[in-house]
Amino acid sequence: MVISSGKRPGDNLANNPLINPGERIMNPAAGGGVTQDLSENIILTTVDDLYNWTRLSSLFPLLYGTACCFIEFAALLGSRFDFDRFGLAPRASPRQADLIIVAGTVTMKMAPALVRLYEQMPKPAYVIAMGACTITGGMFSADSPTALRGVDKIIPVDVYIPGCPPRPEAIFDAVIKLRKKIANESMQERGEFISTHRFYTRSHEMKTVAPILTGEYLASGTRDMPPKELMQAMGMPVEKTADAKLEGAKATADKQEDKA
Amino acid sequence: MADKEKENASDAAESAIIEAGEVSTWLTEQGFGHEAMERDHLGIEILKVEPQFLLPFATALYAYGFNYLRCQSAYDAGPGKELVSVYDLTKLTDDADAPAEVRIKVFLPRENPTIPSVYWIWKAADWQERECYDMFGITYEGHPNLKRLLMPEDWEGWPLRKDYISPDFYELQDAY
């Protein structure tokens, strides 16, 4: 070992009575200063690893829940299970989320909304199917006319969590497994990870229509009074009829009291 | 032997004269035609009404004090049988203790189940009648906004009817 200059560990040994003047220890027991400084201050890694490490350390899940599984997921958000320590910060917008935990039954009516949410998430996006309903339809797979038999029929799922519903610890397990999966990804293979469309899509020629929900639900004209036919069928407006009958009923009640 | 005895017992139960309850008696006195059915296990009166007489009948009950439509529901009596629209009524007052209850059943033909809406008497019927329309295809005439409540609006068929056959969509096929 050639030590060129500067303060060397060997220098301390100059006054050592066991060593004659002019003698040097070639390999002293103390560590070399330069190599130690290097190993403490320089990290050798790949861009893939660095990129994956940043991604897996801050997975932002979409705040999404359709049924009882979300109760367990909500427990995970709280202080007892505290999933912020995994770097998971729930996001209310799919544009800011890169993980969706499908918590709860998905129906045929909800399915288009779920696909739309997934498509709005910036890729690469990850999907965790939580609970029996999202894996096979669960207890609804027997005879439900509307429950989707597994969300993997419409969106690609990375991790499945069995359970009905799964415990929060199981979601941790799934998140850790997903982190391992993300850690193994490589930018060179990115082309292979582009998700395939597992659902039927066609290019629509969309037409703009007026929104259905105008906030005037209870104020809509059909709620002012019954239709004419109904009023005619009843003979007179309902309220008046009711009042008249009420009087009749009162009279009857009085009679009954008199009898008693 | 046991079966025969059972049959005899059930025949006896069917043929037994059902004693008209308080509400039924009052309605008969007022001239509202109906049929008293066997009381349920809690002793609540069940009145069977023809659909064309439902509105005046319900109005009379509202006037009698049944101001609260606790539940409106429907069921399918069986394959090829009628659809039934059910109304649970309660007399709601302050400090009510065991308030009076009554149940109306309207039997509707399967081919053209139409019935007047009671929305204009009890506003609570709004969404419940929509659900009955959604699940059984019963048309509530005069309802202000009769469209499907739970199923997608372009769904075909009435899912809770006994003769409904679930569609064989890819999304609905079993995973295994």
Count of separate DSSP helical elements of chain B: 4
**What is the mean predicted local confidence, pLDDT of chain A?**
79
Q: Report the portion of residues of chain A in β strands.
A: 5-15%
**Estimated radius of gyration of chain B:** 19 Å
List keywords for this structure.
heterodimer, A: 260 residues, mainly alpha, four-stranded parallel sheet, 8 helices, elongated, disordered N terminus, B: 176 residues, alpha/beta, two-stranded parallel sheet, 22% strand
Helix and strand arrangement:
The complex is a heterodimer of chains A (260) and B (176).
Chain A: H1 33-41, H2 47-57, E1 61-62, H3 69-77, E2 99-103, H4 111-120, E3 126-130, H5 132-136, E4 159-161, H6 168-183, H7 228-234, H8 238-259
Helix pairs in contact in A: 2-6
Chain B: H1 2-15, H2 22-30, E1 35-37, E2 45-49, H3 54-64, E3 68-76, E4 83-90, E5 101-108, E6 114-116, H4 125-136, E7 139-141
Parallel strand pairs in B: 2-5, 6-7
Antiparallel strand pairs in B: 1-2, 3-4, 4-5
